[in-house]
Design goal:
mainly alpha, two-stranded antiparallel sheet, about 70% helix
Length: about 250
């Protein structure tokens, strides 16, 4: 049986409205549900606001500031120690570590400032290294001697090989093991160039010695990685073509 919640009149279960007040008859299931429902939750749930997102540019600025402070502190310490030892305002032995710290700062900050511009990054890193080696050569006896015969060719070779590897790696469509192969080929070329430059400077003749022990295994591994990458890529492409054909036939 059901009851009218206003008149307390008992009516049959199939009655929809009270015969006295014409109010809707609440079924027992509905009444139990109403009684079980709570007007207020047991605890207030406060939604936490999303943390403010930091832009990529802001992150680079913070990283640049951190690197600059990290480099500036040892610079000031070395300058202070050098002046204290020499009892003057001149920098003697301190110019070597100071130049090295400035080079490290440039090598870190150039990629931060030239993000997504790999060619410019290579140029900036190369110019930084050139300036560093020129200064180190000049610090020895006040003149530039070995830089043109050893340092400059090595820098040029490094910049050329790095640029080629970076450009090829960026332009290639399917990236994977082939990138590692390109790097290995670049290392092989660097070793060959270093062998030629150094031995030519020492013996005054063009010879190749130790680089062969590096070039041969790296070239074999690089060639295998290229074969593996493009072989797997071809298999995957063939599977995709077969799946598309099956779908079209269906």
């Amino acid at each position: 049986m059901s009851y009218c919640i206003k008149c307390n009149v008992e009516v049959d279960s199939f009655i929809e409205k009270c015969p006295l007040c014409q109010s809707d008859i609440q079924k027992l299931d509905d009444v139990d549900q109403i009684l079980e429902e709570k007007k207020y939750p047991e605890e207030i749930i406060v939604e936490e606001e999303d943390e403010p997102k930091i832009s990529g540019r802001r992150k680079r600025v913070v990283a640049l500031e951190a690197v600059s402070v990290s480099a500036g502190v040892p610079l000031l310490i070395i300058i202070g120690i050098n002046m204290f030892i020499e009892r003057s305002f001149t920098i003697t032995w301190g110019k070597y570590p100071l130049t090295g710290i400035v080079l490290a700062w440039l090598l870190i900050t150039v990629p931060l400032l030239l993000l997504k511009k790999p060619v410019l990054i290579v140029v900036g890193e190369t110019l930084s290294l050139i300036a560093f080696l020129v200064l180190i050569d000049f610090y020895d006896n006040g003149s530039i001697d070995w830089y043109y015969q050893i340092a400059l060719p090595i820098i040029g070779l490094t910049a050329l090989v790095t640029s080629i590897v970076v450009i090829v790696s960026i332009r290639v469509k399917n990236k994977g093991a082939n990138i590692a192969a390109f790097v290995l080929f670049g290392v092989s070329t660097m070793c060959l160039g270093l062998d030629l430059i150094i031995l030519s400077y020492i013996h005054e003749t063009i010879t190749i010695k130790w680089s062969l022990y590096v070039i041969i295994p790296l070239t074999i591994v690089g060639g295998f990685l290229l074969y593996l990458h493009y072989r797997l890529t071809r298999i995957v492409d063939m599977k995709r073509v077969l799946e598309i054909r099956k779908k079209l036939k269906a």
